[in-house]
Request: fold
Amino acid sequence: MATDEALALETPRESRALPRARPTLSPIVPWAVGIALTWLALAHFHRDSVAMLWHWAPHLALGLRMNVLISVLAIGIGTVLGAVVGALELSRCRWIKAPARGYVHAFRNAPMLVLLFFTTYVFPFEIHVGSLYLPFPDWIKVTVGLALPASAYIAEVFRGALLSITSAQWEAAASLGLSRSQSLRWVILPQCFKRVLPPWMNLYAMITMSTTLASLVGVTELLESARNATNTVNRTDFTILVYLAVLTLFFLYCYPITRFTARLERKYAFH
Amino acid sequence: MPESWLPAFVVAAKSVGLNYAFLLNAFEREAWLKGVVVSVELSFLSIASSLLVGLVIATALTSERPWLARPARAFVEIIRNTPTLVQIFCAFFVLNMLVSQALGGPQNNPLTAYAWVVIVLSLHFGAYHAEALRAGIEAVPKGMRESAASLGFSRRGRLIHVELPLAFRFAWPSLINNMVDLVKATSLGSAIAVGEVTYASLMIWVNGDNVLELMIFIFLVYAALTLFVVWLGGWVEKRLRMPGYGH
Reply:
């Protein structure tokens, strides 16, 4: 009974501590207008440097393609690995649980840049399979280096989601005659999905932004392409424009994701 | 001053296949230790200034004046949706260049790479702190606000004496999270040659075959630093605890 009382006292305070959802219009529209106007103005007043930027656009696009490729692969590997580690974390066996917890702690507490240095410098540049030499290029090492911390974050998200489903749900499913795997599939996982999706999307935006770290280990992604362009042209106004373009591209990619996440969070919030 | 246990440690590490010979080289050892000191300095300097920046932005975010709240919101969204490394490059390769040009040459520019890292990390994590503090300010119970108003507090007095002290306590766990992220982000300083521990290690492992060994040391340094921040945060949280709020 004591716990029930504590819960009854806790609940209003918890709900008060949540930030209030503000019913605003989608701010995507003013942002889109603002960015479009800025670039139109730049194209009007700095015609020749914008033309030069257009000339470099294919090079930058190739870079951006690398960022997208790395981020998608990293989140994919991270999700699969994270789901496994998250499940292991909930194991009742101490010898499975402890290493899983250690894995999560180690990869969450290490700076991503240091992990990238680790995977690029410690992993071999080719893998030996029988008589075959498979190349192990830097961009794949970077993908692995980003997938490891991603899996640790996802493991935490999964663990939290699985724990947030009350045991009453399992019992109710069982009383309806569902087997354990059926209740997992039809009752528990659909509820987990709602809890996992917003933080998963936030993590994807974070991983995407972290792909720029690849430029520091010699992978030609957007930031590295931008550096190449500015060093080749070596003009003040062009340098400013290129970095502005990089900021704009990342903002255009990540802002809609975070907005959508915030909307889902409000939609799925407990009330 | 080579300690007597140092050679013993190097020999012991050698027996498990780890090459820590750089510790016996006074020059490399000093350079690496200096890197650790720079990392600690960079972390605490940036944490302090990011909290100040966060306070200012949070005040602007919750302001009722749209000309203050809107630019603050735009700033926070830009900071949160662009990569930290790009922000550091924009500061160091664009703003630094503009400052140098305005002052008539890089020799007149007082801003170093170190200063730019502190500035960028303060603004970046200031924006994250501001979001946490905004949520904290909005979580202050309405009755509290109204009673402060009825006691004759002006809007500013209410913010300083009632809302912010409470918001700070509500937001503190998120602020600690941000500070841990900040400590990890100081490693980005190595990208523009700030001599913190990652950069110092880079300089050592290019000369020798000891990447793994240095990696272990770097992880230990960051683990110790983040643990210290979390411990300090817990201590502050305990000191600030008020009856009736928190557990």
